[in-house]
């Protein structure tokens, strides 16, 4: 139907349908947008978990290296102490006892350091395995999530273009509305009442569910454009 040839009731009826379709599309966009954001969050959480594990592993490796150096140092000290002790250079009994004591101390230290180093190596092995597992999970999950994100982005783009074409249809109707009706329509929108245009069903306004006076119902039947005296919405006859 040519829009210019429509009567006001027909224009408002089409406007009502377009308003409702736009609302539906906006709802869908909002929902898809939320889905998109939550997937992005999930992906970023997974990534930071893996990063955290990696950092932890690196920290432990640096720590281990420090312990290994200390162990090496102790081993060297022990070696030179032993050499000194068995060199035959020390003759004093007192001095000999001191050297023996320090050797014992170093031996004890060495075995403690060996124990510590071993435990740390085992810990690193466990961390390494965990890290590899998480990394694998991330790569599996992220390709899955990225595919879902791509799909959602396409759907959202499609919905947005749908919304755009509905809005331009709506604008065409608005441009054809008599000034008085248009200003009523805009006034209702600015008061955040939704939907703006409703049908009158057996004398009852479908916006506020209240009975309108008989005179209003008569006007609506005669296809005059009137507003509900209760809620202010524009009324259309039930087709
Ligand atoms: Zn009403």
Automatic annotation (TrEMBL):
Pfam families tied to this protein: CT398_CC, Zn_ribbon_9
Domain CT398-like coiled coil hairpin span(s) in chain numbering: 15-189
InterPro entries associated with the record: CT398_CC_hairpin, Oxidative_Scav/Glycosyltrans, Zf-RING_7
Record domain C4-type zinc ribbon: where: 205-235
Entry-linked Gene3D superfamilies: 1.10.287.1490
Coiled-coil segments: 15-169
UniProt KW keywords: Coiled coil
Protein name: C4-type zinc ribbon domain-containing protein
Species of provenance: Thermatribacter velox
